[in-house]
Amino acid sequence: MTTARVIPILLLKGRGLYKTEKFDKAKYLGDPINILRIFNDKEVDEIALLDIAATTEGRGPDFEQIADIVSESFMPLAYGGGVSTLDQAMRLFALGVEKVVLNTHAIDNPDLITQISNQAGAQAVVVAIDAKKPLIGGWQVYAQGGSRKTNLSPPEWAKTAVAKGAGEIMITAIGQEGTMKGYDLDLIQAVTAAVNVPVIAHGGAGSITHLKQALGAGASAVAAGSLFVYQGPHRAVLISYPSPSELADLQGTSAGYPL
User: Which of 51, 130, 184, 186 is catalytic?
Assistant: First the structure.
């Protein structure tokens, strides 16, 4: 039986954590370390920290801040945001980061995927794909926080990323992100059918049912932000995570690949 992974996504901006909707309307949540400690207490299996300002601001990772966060994490941690060189990735691994998440810089320089994969192993490289579907035509990959359209389709870019050495793909439907209305299952199915590595579904989760739907569509793992940081119709900030019984109910749902 494939074990379904459930991954909180934390969005870092400056010294705080934020939550966005459709990659916009960033709402401040609180101090990264305080929120991370709550997830520690909830015995989360793994977590992803994405700096949503690094690439758009033209800078690399804030290594000092990341070191502070990693030192407080009892969970395997993936980091993405501004990673543009092999040296930066290796420095992150030395700090205790388990996986690096590449997006814009992988699109602009696909060989970066190979360089990191050759040094750290494919399991340490996640390529994040942010996608939008226009009114006419198929899905398109976007870079730089959803602000720059590329000529890539999500399934084809996923294939290229895996061929270059990515051990995992994270797919986000920009139009669903933060809405809590559910994942785009067609997008998940298209990407999972194109590659033979684990695919993380992200963008739109608002319930345990949504997680099950994404796993049923082929994802090997499900990631969410709003589901784990908001409570109630007014979106009050309250950190949560599925109960052991809810997690057990997800097991065996995935049609994805062995991890």
Answer: 130
